[in-house]
Amino acid sequence: xxxxxxxxxxxxxxxxxxxxWSPLQLWPIGPTHTSVVPSGDVMFFGEFSFGDNHYMxxxxxxxxxxxxxxxxxxxxxxxxxxxxxxLLVTGGHVASHVGxxxxxxxxxxxxxWTRTPEMNDPRWYPTNTTLSNGDVLVISGETTAAGVMxxxxxxxxxxxxxxxxxxxxxxxxxxxxxxxxxxxxxxFIAGPQPWSYYLDTGGTGSMTRVAxxxxxxxxxxxxxxYDVGKILMVGGNQPPTAAAxxxxxxxSSPRWRAVASMGTPRRQHNATVLPDGTVLVTxxxxxxxxxxxxxxxxxxxxxxxxxxxxxxxANVGIYxxxxxxAVLLRDGRVLVGGxxxxxxxxxxxxxxxxxxxxxxxxxxxxxxxxxxxxxIQTPDAASIRRVALIRLGSVTHAFDQNARYVPLSFAANPGxxxxxxxxxxxxxxxxxxxxxxxxxxVPSVATTVRVGPPALAPQRIRLLTPESGESLTPGAAxxxxxxxxxxxxxxxxxxxxxVGATWTKLIHSIVNRGYYDWTVPSTPASAMLLRLSDSANPxxxxxxxxxxxxxxxxxxxxxxxxxxxxxxPGGTDFSFAWTSPPGVPRVNYDYSIDxxxxxxxxxxxxxxxxxxxxxxxxxxxxxxxxxVSSTNEPSIFGESPAFRVTGGPFAVGTPAAGVTLTxxxxxxxxxxxxxxxxxxxxKYSADAxxxxxxxxxxxxxxGRFTWTVFNLDSATVQVKVVDSADETQFAVSGMFxxxxx
Length: 741
Description:
Radius of gyration: 27 Å
Strand order of the largest sheet: 6-5-4-3-34-35
Largest sheet: 6 strands, antiparallel
Number of helices: 1
Structural class: mainly beta
Number of strands: 67
């Protein structure tokens, strides 16, 4: 093609043909490591110094929640999901080419981290693979210096919380090996090394050569399991290749076979398997260097496993290369975000979302064993042509260490479908997105289904009602409902009027029927919780989804200072004040500089004195908020009115407001900033501050930077100078114009 970047307009704009990209979204950090958790939310963390900054993003509301720190930098770690939905993270970033021995587990339900035993070696860029029994293989990764690799694989044994060395399978492999659990129960290591291997994880392990790829050394090129035992490798290498090849592990002597090449060579791209079995390729560079932003590939391509050919889809319009990720969401869209120093994301809607109504899943079993049948209730059974399980994505550095596509054989019956779930070599224990695809190729919204034996099912108690914010009538009959394991024959109920600080017995040792008919007390209460626990094992318990009330509204907090329109000089102390309901002994403080889109921690677990003096950061920002919330029950909270912070040590000299710059010309951005700030980031916005993109990151704070002006063709351009170590320290220029030459 004449223009590998995909800048040429094909003239085709119908989203039913090429799909559609959403506008850019500004994210708190670049999603360098991205995992879809069982709820459908997306957990992500960043690159380099942002490797211990973790967030959860809700695709339905667009809201971000800042998570607990892991306690060390887990950038460049490996990760895959355990059978109960927790994420095992291995290794991390001490420095470039130097890893951690540390391992840690993230529980998306409680949003907490738990340290697990150390590995035999430090690992930087390792790969995790969940096995058929729910254990996890970790392999490769640099240890203490460039080229010094961890050569002894290990298996994390969940039942004993320990690591087993595979001394019989020692091998030196490149960064992030592309590997998959195969139908024969062994782990297939596809690339990017010159040979593909089978690794047997039994005992001390063993390695067997299988086949030699047609293209050797597909560094920073993805591989996906697009069908049972079938793998596609595409692109990668330096300089990049457009070549693609497949292998079928269901045959006795697997061999790599070339298929049609992509329309453009790519490196640093991502591949995502979709509900209809096709594979979406996004981003990458066609340039010869490691991460060549001057040679971006903007076109999106789709591989059809039936025809084994590629179709060109909508242009993304932004470079997505090194440190970008792409994951499938439950609604069939694909989240694509990041790149080096890029804190943005977009959502791609494939053509199938513009081809008619979706089929629906009315109900389905959410826990199912392998080698069993799955009953799916749907009013659209007659039109369903495909039923598929797709394991939750967990992506970094151009490879998804968790996802796999499993089409299910099925039969329709009146009102539903019965599908056959394969064995654990094909569907390793854990959570999957269940999709129905109709005769127009349109997928349903997925339901999360956990595949696994009952012994691996998470032993949890969940109170369903009363719901958070519900108000109960004093003296009325009310049914408390819950779910609890069948291994819990009897349960205890307790209540709290101080959001969990103290608990009082309600009724103990009742039969676990899943409900209790409660006569609501006549005494009003503004913030109550119930706790249900296993009578024989009180450590197994669940608490109400949130506080509820009796005889009135649920308690909230209300700020009395600041008031609407308050201006606070940056770097000064301000006394925030609020009212709070009874039973909130300790509180957390957070603040936002973007009207509540992203919240940042101030201080947690403080005595609630209904006032707090905070030294407001030295910045120039309008739309700042403070939030106070109960430490025990965060759903009891209050947010201040928006206020303005003025002052700050930064100032932008040029460009001045009102100037006109010519795209492609050289222009000096100038600023003043304290000498104590060693490095700054330069950003720009072409929509009056709506979305900020990076000009250059972590540059020396010299007060001057020569910018080759981007082709923005906009009259709403601004430049922002930001302290690289503290994003609350920044200044923004006035609005100016960029015109084409």
